[in-house]
Write a structure and sequence with these properties.
By secondary structure, the protein is mainly alpha-helical. Helix content is 61%, strand content 5%. The chain is built from 17 helices and eight strands. The strands form four sheets. A two-stranded antiparallel ribbon has the order 1-4. A two-stranded antiparallel ribbon has the order 2-3. It starts with 13 loop residues before the first helix and ends in an 18-residue tail after the last strand.
């Protein structure tokens, strides 16, 4: 729809059209090439989890492109949808004020004019006049659609950027623990001597002294309080790392006491990152609900800022308390033990017996915080700092302080805590194996399952004499038994192998000790 006073492509110089298209296409190709070379670099460095996270970012960009195209194509049709005037005066972000002519306008209307929005205002007048002839208002003006378009783009970009910053700073914190891993690995000792050659006084162990406070209800309450404050300082100490590492190895890798726990932890964290960087469907529901509650006088965005703040403190406290529970289990049962102090990982220590719930909550926390800060920057750039949507200064400063605090604490405390504490579940992730070993195990499991099916069918249809049965040698058992191949992540058609021995959880690989 052409707007009065505006020049269409029919009367625009061809060199202008060609120049603008060249710039847009060049920028698009530059971004695409950057992502392409980044992906090749990650594959070359054997960083498949980060490569999959990059693919997730590409999916989000494609979704944004589709949303952008949909809004652009349908904006005229949406602007021509009319509603009764009484419905357009309720649930407003800004209170309408009447000018001298009796017309109502929002308090940031003049600010937008000063920012050069005359073309969109002209289009608004066209859609408004269309509905005004019918005594109604447009359901959403062209200007509002344009602003919504920009907001969705800003939200997605801020979320991706904040997730990347979180994983970078959190990963830097975790890599500081590598010196502890190297110190343990450089020790020369016999694996059989670890549990047999010395006695450990449980109460004098650094891990127990730092976590165990006694038995009783008051002590349990104090344990929660201690866990709450522990997340703000020295959330993971060297004794914590050493003890949790040994507990993991004795649970899942008993035959390899020099297992590189730190490398496994980094690989598992990178594998989880691809889930955190995406915007799931339930997060878009949160966006819609928050946009609905942005009513004048409710200060919804101020109260929303406390959601990620409270969730982050709850997650950090729970992760610290899991370590405390592991210490209590040992201290309450033993005064002295033979060998090193070993904790017993279990899913029972986590909410609903599922360590993966912690990852979902971290995903929600990062998105909520990104949403809060994205709204702030969007309103500031689009309407100005003094806009009625921005709110009073007394509500703005706490929002910014909470947002920065959540980002900092999540990067330097909660994410490292998640990386090590969630390994204290009953099962381990397939990141424990290198990529080629994972493929080999899954491929072997598939072939073994198919071969077993063929043998079953053959035995059902053919009669084999006793002489032939006796002459057939029994197959030799494999070193690792995999009885079932299951899907780990519903978003990806990848299969893992499960063992017959130990705690079995869907999506995890469990080695069996010996043959059946």
């Amino acid at each position: 729809m052409a707007v009065a006073g505006e020049t269409t492509l029919e009367y625009t110089p061809t060199w202008v059209v060609a120049a603008v298209c060249t710039v847009i296409v060049a920028i698009s190709f530059a971004v695409e090439r950057i992502l392409h070379y980044t992906g090749n670099y990650l594959k070359k460095k054997d960083q498949k989890p980060l490569y999959e996270a990059l693919l997730k970012i590409k999916e989000e960009l494609m979704l944004l492109g589709f949303i952008s195209l949909l809004l652009t194509v349908s904006q005229d049709r949406i602007a021509r949808i009319c509603i009764p005037k009484r419905y357009s005066d309720d649930w407003l972000p800004c209170k309408k004020i009447e000018d001298d002519s009796g017309e109502k306008s929002t308090s940031h209307f003049q600010i937008f004019i000063s920012q050069g929005g005359r073309r969109l205002l002209a289009e608004d007048s066209a859609s408004t006049s269309y509905c005004a002839k019918r005594g109604k208002d447009p359901i959403l003006s062209t200007t509002a659609l344009h602003h919504l378009h920009i907001f969705i783009f800003v939200l997605a970009v801020v979320h991706v950027v904040f997730c990347v910053l979180t994983i970078v700073f959190g990963g830097a914190k975790i890599r500081q623990w590598k010196s502890w891993e190297d110190a343990i690995s450089n020790k020369e000792y016999d694996p059989e001597e670890v549990l047999k050659t010395k006695f450990t006084n449980v109460q004098e162990h650094d891990f127990i002294k730092g976590r165990f406070r006694g038995v009783g209800k008051r002590v349990n309450l104090f344990g929660w309080v201690h866990s709450f404050f522990k997340q703000f300082y020295a959330s993971v100490t060297r004794s914590d790392y050493t003890t949790l590492r040994l507990g993991f190895i004795m649970m899942h890798c008993r035959g390899n006491p020099k297992f590189n726990f730190h490398k496994y932890m980094i690989r598992a964290l990178e594998a989880d990152f691809k889930r955190v960087v995406g915007i799931s469907w339930y997060l878009w529901i949160f966006v819609v609900v928050f946009l609905l509650l942005n009513v004048y006088g409710w200060h919804a965005y101020f109260w929303i800022a406390f959601v990620p703040f409270i969730l982050l403190l709850a997650v950090g406290t729970k992760l610290e308390h899991v370590i405390t529970q592991l210490a209590h289990e040992v201290a309450e049962k033993h005064v002295a033990i033979e060998g090193d102090l070993v904790v017993k990982p279990s899913d029972d220590h986590f909410w609903f017996h599922s360590p993966q719930i912690v990852l979902i909550l971290i995903h929600v926390i990062l998105f909520q915080n990104s949403f809060e800060l994205a709204v702030f920057f969007w309103i500031w750039v689009q309407y100005g700092f003094d806009s009625c949507i921005m709110g009073q200064l007394g509500f703005i400063i706490p929002r910014l302080v909470i947002g920065v605090f959540v980002q900092f604490l999540c990067s330097y405390s909660t994410l490292p805590l998640y990386a090590i504490v969630t390994q204290m579940g009953s099962s381990f992730k397939r990141a424990i194996f290198d990529e080629h070993i994972q493929k080999g195990l899954v491929g072997w499991a598939k072939k073994a399952k198919q071969k077993k099916g063929f043998k079953t069918n053959a035995n059902g249809h053919n009669q084999v004499g006793p002489k032939e049965e006796a002459s057939t040698p029994p197959p030799s058992p494999p070193a690792v038994q995999l009885t079932q191949v299951v899907k780990k992540d519903p978003d990806h058609d990848q299969e893992d192998a499960e063992g017959k021995k130990g705690n079995v959880a869907v999506g995890e690989i469990h080695p069996a000790n010996g043959s059946k």
